[in-house]
User: Fold this.
Amino acid sequence: MANFQNEATAKKEFVKAMEVKYGKEWGSNQQNDDIQATTAKYLRLGTAQNPRKMEMAKIGAEITKKRGLQAYDPMLHLAGIPLGQRQLTPYTLSGTDIVCDGDDLHYVNNAAMQQEWDDIRRTCVVGLDLAHETLEKRLGKEVTPETINYYLEVLNHAMPGAAIVQEHMVETHPAMVDDCYVKVFTGDDSLKDELDPQFVIDIDKMFIPEQAAQIKASIGKSTFQAVHIPTVVSRTADGGQTSRWMAMQVGMSFISAYHMCAGEAAVADLAFTAKHAGLVEMSEMLPARRARGPNEPGGLSFGHMADIVQTSRKFRDDPCKIALETCAAASMLYDQIWLGGYMSGGVGFTMYATAAYTNNITDDDLYASTEYGWDKYGCGIGKNVAPSIDVIRDIGTWGTLYGLELYENYPTALEDHFGGSQRATVVSTASAAAVAIATGNSNAGLSAWYLSMYLHKEAHGRLGFFGYDLQDQCGATNVFSYQSDEGLLGELRGANYPNYAMNVGHQGGYTTVITGAYTGRGDAFSTNPLVKTCFADDLMNFDFMEVRECFGKGALREFDRCAGERAFVIPAK
Amino acid sequence: MAYTPQYYPGSTSVAENRRKHMSNNVEKLREVSDEDVTAMLGHRAPGTDYPSTHPPLAEMGEPDCPVREIVTPTPGTAAGDRVRYVQWADSMYNAPSTPYWRSYHAAINHRGVDPGTLSGRAVVEARERDMELIAKEQIETEMTCPGLAGLRGCTVHGHSCRLQEDGVMFDMLDRRRLEGDSIVQDKDQVGVPIDRKVNMGKPMSSDEANKRTTFYRVGNVAFRDDAEVIEWTQRIWELRSVYGYQPK
Assistant:
């Protein structure tokens, strides 16, 4: 896959993406423009210029006829004036050669995007050590590698929804739940070597040696289960269902595998230790005013999101690439699904997120700003400059001016990012992440974010929609605060952090900044080694290593790792 | 009530223009009749009375209130007008004004206004007759080039789009266009056809727009060339950041 490595390559790929978008005909939009010209022909061809729009119009008309009720009709856009008064242009998924229509990046139209969220929501990590202690000390059971292997066999039968111990139980059909499984991981090499490899996430195999050593040292001798419940279950209920479903099947599997009494009081002790005491959800519950259970995106910290993405395992020497893949994953989830879906509902939020991961614009800005910082301060992976106001101001200003002038020098980039909110997010993300990469400090990066917003507003006399005034004008005064309800380490902030909870176009950017900090340090993980290891697993349906390529496959309707489909139990067409 | 001029750093023409907009020291360039302004705004038919949401204040028997005694109502408030809006889109290709400077102009120089500032548009809401005065002021002065700015209540995209080949800012709803050497508008802010073609006058030449703009961009006045503005912005950021960092 493409790995830009440096600013020169990133610039070349940015220009290429602009030429694909504006210099070549797409559908029949009759476009062949100079990407640096300040004028363009506006042919007002409407939706007829675009095959995807025509497909949608045709199917919309068929639906209207079939059900006898109005459905999609592009002429209803505004009093008979459809979209397409300008050229309808395609999008290159950044870091790839995949080109698609914008519509195919709406999560409803993109199975890969849905699967990214499915795979996060249906996952939890559960410790085994406390359960084993309870088995040995409270119940007098012997725990050995052999018993653990047998327990994991039982558990991988039961976790998808199969019956265990009891008669008269119904079961889920395995064809409906084939994405569900449990693996284990540990920092204890001797235990790992005695476990059946089918059940093990082998840290030494999944991470480069330096990272593996760091992760194993962080986990220690403890053992954890990486649990992925069925996608169809998670979709039918909510994120809170993940740990509930896990807990029921884990408890019953212990009873079965260790031949326990199903009713004695000691089982309550096991239930607590096995199901709850060692549980790590991907995200926290939200307070009542935004009431959601755990494992919903509003409670997902930026640090966990950074650790869910796996690009760092393969591209340690390219912190920009790691940050940009994380940027895509986080922007899609936080903007398109969380704020766009859960909190708002609708269509427009897609365009905020896509600006961050299409057409190599954020890429160009980030590689350039990172190179500036590294060259100026003699930095490299694991070789950071101490964060200070002077360093933040210098790299943050340089990156912001570079990003703004990119729009001024390339009118097509300005047209692509048609709203200031998109531009503000992209420029701030890149300049702030570059500061984080150089300093290895997430809060220094976030500070640069606010400097960038201030400079942007003064330069262009505009910023984003109202919300950018809200959080981006006041952010500097709380970015370094660690007082309760005001501040935290960037890694522990998240979508429900007080100053960050309201506005689209930010949370994915913040995650990029947080990612920059750990990748700049050359660390194996950002916040939680358990989360990083849990997702270091090729059996996951979504590809958390190459996020943007995976989105592209979804856009091209080539993503074939979908789960939770109902085709097996519904009438075949 | 008298306002003192507002100050803004910078030594470039852009900074100077920003100061002019803020202090309402702007040159009148064209005449557009009150009826034409009303027609383009689209809130009421030209020549009709202002619809009201309450009786005139003088007839309402307001309670004793020291604030009411201090603050003289605006004409629109005194008459009980509805609150209505004027919304602009300004091109990033050196349109004279920018959203923040339209908002600053309205908020600093007029009372009873509620500006909203976005990237592609700036909306000012006020009692209808008060709003019309602000709209007319912005339409007729150097704050506006009719080719590079537009009255747009909805479908505001265009500010960041490349210009049309004739140098006019793109408008999906084609509310106004270049006819001969002048811009004419025949739809209201939300694209509903009106009963006239309003002549908005000649668009600015590119040299004139470059001279009058409040927008920094390379090829004219680059932001990086106005060191004083950058330094003040950095200073404000630094002071706010340091203030917020109080580990106690």
In short: Chain A is about 50% helix and 5% strand. Residues 319-344 of chain A form the longest helix (26 residues).
